[in-house]
């Protein structure tokens, strides 16, 4: 039997989701019926709308629906601020910033606000690096981790492959407090590598930050470059993701959304990574540490929808994208390589289906990309401000994905033909 406290939480979460979806649905219906006056679209957006069969009116309905949903989420204290970006392979269709950077009086977020990406680091940074190295034949996903990190030793660890790490089936524990157990980045990294397995590899899926930390070490060993330097040179630079970085400089501070008041560091975190283990690792890790903007993440998603190329920069091949975004074993989990896929209960909502893929970040960030709809949905927030105990973001993510798909599916549906005369 469900404990009463848990039951109350479930009911409260369900009510918040229902309220968010209802607010967005009412906005959709109102705009559709009213035939609202539409703002001027940029030529690139207008041409993208025409090419993909989505009317300008439908984009305005989508914009109003997203606005209504996020305004309600802010009113419900799901986060101090947020930016949603929805688009396709050609351009951004809708972008909306809500709230403020902090609960204290501060600027409204926009496409250039820097957010702590948390575990989106795993896919935007780490997985992209592994994709490139795999495509180039420099790493073998089915090779043992020990081939690349010799000190990865212990009972059964010789059986762990890179594929196990990417699908969170390595047998490693989910986490350990490296920041409490070590006193330097080198010691923290060594302890992550030395951590014993909980189970044999391939037995179960346990989402593990430790596995991502070790994959980051592999990128560095194989490429001969620090992880942040590799990504800047091979991913973010070519994609012109000019604001995406580890350890942002103090000159960027006013653009950064603060995260939690951290009891361990005894300060409100702004401009340094929220994740304590990433901080202990020097701010650069495969599992967390990246900061980015709505503008930059949209470019990243468009690259995926365009088969790995954007504005002349080729990052990966279409085949590599297909390989890394395909579920590896659906009887085992819904994990692809690095990426997550829709399962009807996660942040993809109830309407996205495979081959869509995405990921979330602990600070309140998420990405979903759906090649079949030529669609991406980005939500960047600082829901952990001022405390990680705020769990309202789950309902917001689900409602946002659902309302976007619902509006665009309705726009794409053929108009009913008039009845034939009798």
Descriptive labels:
five-stranded antiparallel sheet, three-stranded antiparallel sheet, alpha+beta, disordered N terminus, single chain, 422 residues
Through-space gap between termini:
60 Å
Poorly predicted sequence stretches spanning 5 or more consecutive residues: 1-8, 30-44
DSSP strand count: 12
On the 0 to 100 scale, the average pLDDT is 90
- Trace the largest sheet across and list its strands: 2-1-12-11-10
* Proportion of strand residues: 5-15%
Largest sheet: 5 strands, antiparallel
Shape: globular
Number of helices: 13
Relative helix content: 25-40%
Structural class: alpha+beta
How would you characterize this protein structure?
- This protein is of the alpha+beta class and 422 residues long.
- The protein has a domain at 126-229.
- Helices cover 39% and strands 11% of the residues.
- The strands form four sheets. The chain has a five-stranded antiparallel β-sheet, with helices on both faces. The chain has a three-stranded antiparallel β-sheet with strand order 3-7-4. A two-stranded antiparallel sheet has the order 5-6.
- Helix 1 runs antiparallel to helix 3, helix 1 (4-34) runs parallel beside helix 13 (393-412) and helix 4 crosses helix 9.
- The N and C termini lie far apart (60 Å).
- The model is unreliable at 1-8 and 30-44 (pLDDT under 50).
